[in-house]
Amino acid sequence: MSLHTFVIAEAGSCHDGYLEQAFLLIEAAARAGADACKFQFMSSPRKVAKRRHAPAYRKVYERYRVHKKQLPLLKAHCDAVGIEFMCTVYLPEDIEVVAPLVKRFKVASFEAGDTAFVEAYRTYNKPLIISTGMAGGGQQYMWGDVSEVSYLHCVSAYPCPIGQANLRAIALGFDGYSDHTANVLTGALAVAAGASILEVHFRLDDTDPANPDYATALRPKDLIRYVRLVRLAETMMGDGVKRPQPVEAAMMPYRVTG
User: Fold this and answer.
1) How far is it, in rounded angstroms, from Cα 17 to Cα 154?
2) Are 202 and 219 in contact (CB under 8 A)?
3) Nearest Cα residue to 199 out of 219, 226, 222
4) What are the pLDDT digits (tens) for 61-103?
5) How many CA atoms within 13 Å lie on the side-chain side of 101?
6) Pair 6, 198: CB distance under 8 Å
7) ω before 159 within 30° of 0 (cis)?
8) Domains of the chain, first to last
9) Cα separation of 20 and 174, whole Å?
């Protein structure tokens, strides 16, 4: 029996700042067979830019932000099309905003090194997924028990060159992979390397090419292929137990033993 990989379709900023476009992204993620559609929320782009030492990004954060009043609408639309709503936050005070709306939390690589921020999720007793981009093997990225914690191998480049995806690292004990390669094969290869959770960026066909996530994001038809290849990889990987397969039964009488 094959395991089911939890596929998170990351909408990121590809809604271009429009609620209707966000709804279309949710529908595209559901059609592709993803398990969840994830957005990003920041109550204060100014604070996020300061926290990340990135003043040059403040205008980008403001341009592509999701507003607090839109979060319940996005959640309701996810519910309506049968896909799980997820939302990443970057400020400690925003955790409580999304907590009532999500089944699980996701921490981005840029905040993963902030132990206090990660510990703040413990209060809610919900599963937590943490990306580990920019962390090396000698760095501390396992934060202990915060309810149920899953860790994603990640390379924080947008897009990530395929030669630096380093999928073999998944076997070091990671639960999955946060994919920035914009390649339809990567998810299936990550499953073969041991991933049970995938996060992949996607966009609409008419997303503005100036969008900061544009180069990292799959088109809707490519997201469909991506998920199909992931499911194919699941089937082919099986359960990993070495034993005769049912299809071999017809050949068993001819097996020579001695």
Assistant:
1) 26
2) yes
3) 226
4) 999 999 999 999 999 999 999 999 999 999 999 999 999 999 9
5) 29
6) yes
7) yes
8) 6-254 (3.20.20.70)
9) 36
Q: Which amino acid is at 13?
A: S
Please return the burial class of 63, using the count of CB atoms within 10 Å of its CB with bins 0-12, 13-18 and 19+. middle
**CB neighbourhood size of 174 (10 A):** 23
Q: Give the Cα-Cα-Cα angle 234, 236, 242 (nearest 5 degrees).
A: 110
Q: Helix crossing, 19-32 with 71-81: angle to 10°?
A: 30
Model confidence pLDDT, tens digit, residues 200-216? 999 999 999 999 999 99
166 with 155: CB under 8 angstroms?
yes
Contact of 238 with 2, CB cutoff 8 Å: yes
> Which two three-digit tokens encode residue 181?
């390669």
Q: 136 near 153, Cβ under 8 Å?
A: no
Q: Are strands 128-131 and 149-154 parallel, antiparallel or unpaired?
A: parallel
Strand 105-107 versus strand 84-89 pairing type: unpaired
Single-letter amino acid code for the residue at 228: R
In the block, tokens 């996607």 appear at 202
pLDDT recorded at residue 136: 77
Q: Are the CB atoms for 28 and 220 separated by under 8 Å?
A: yes
